[in-house]
Amino acid sequence: MDKIKQTALNIITKFQTNDPLKIIECLNIIIVYDDLGNSLDGFLQQVDKHFIIHVNTRKPPCPSVIAHELGHYFLHQSINHFKVSKSSLFFPLEIEQEANQFASELLLTDDMLYSMLESFHPYSIQELASHFELPVHLIELKLATLSKDDYPL
């Protein structure tokens, strides 16, 4: 099992939930809703020993944004690779992809997906995204992970 999936599963076990809002509450992470412009969904900020997740009010509320920022919190806390580009903060692409994968593993466990797939076949990626209320790109990441682990789809 890959490290990111295992990290997400460990967090679900530890906090007894995959709900990002409940997890940030347990961790005493502050959530702030800000107008971050049109290109940024959110970002994780550390101030002294406190962490703040900023979520863009210009975008529809989505647990995947908070889950993505939790990915940075759990996977990249020791990395300080923020760069500034056109007034927005971002991590290098590889780190962003890892945070996306973490979000997909946290919000959609293998058991959740298999239970859905077993109830009726076939589902399109768009139907799965709609059912789980997740962005299509996170469903695609999750399905790619399942295929990599040789699960029958």
UniProtKB/TrEMBL annotation:
The protein's name in its UniProt record: IrrE N-terminal-like domain-containing protein
Pfam families named in the record: Peptidase_M78
Domain IrrE N-terminal-like positions: 25-142
Top-rank taxon, per record: Bacteria
Organism the protein comes from: Brochothrix thermosphacta (Microbacterium thermosphactum)
PANTHER family for this protein: ANTITOXIN HIGA1, BLL7220 PROTEIN
